[in-house]
Amino acid sequence: MITVNESLQILRFHRYKVTQPRKLVLQVLERSTEPLSPYDIQKLLQKKGKSLNPVTIYRILNLFCSLDLAHRVLSQGGFVKCTLGEKEGCHRFVICRRCGSLQEFVNEALCQQESEIVQNMGFHTEHHLSEVSGLCSKCHDGER
What we know:
It is a single chain. The protein has helices at about 5-15, 20-30, 40-45, 55-65, 110-120, 135-144; strands at about 70-75, 80, 90-95, 100-105, 130-135. It is α+β, with helices and mostly antiparallel strands. The chain folds into two domains: about 5-80, Winged helix-like DNA-binding domain superfamily/Winged helix DNA-binding domain (Arc Repressor Mutant, subunit A), CATH 1.10.10.10; about 90-144, Ferric-uptake regulator, C-terminal dimerisarion domain (Dna Ligase, domain 1), CATH 3.30.1490. Helix 3 packs across helix 4 (about 55-65).
């Protein structure tokens, strides 16, 4: 997993300013074990005596997503810090419907295959999103 400092270096590399709001959002995401909405992030920051507008947080999260520093988890309605860094391929999630555990993985061949399928449909891919819902091994074994 890339650290906050490494994320800040990526921002600088892409010529974005390292601002206090961006640092704060990165720190909250790094400590979280579940997807957070901009309002969740705002509440966590308020508990620490910090104040950020949800619109500002949303804009920061969109920037982070564009740089693969964070990802939107659609089924959970929130954002998580990227755990894979710059690994090639589309970043995917498996999410346990019982305990909520979330794991990120990447598979370059799957990404290429999806792109080929949609190209054959006359579509030009800009971004891939995929989530798999089910039971993690711990929850599945607990059902037995």
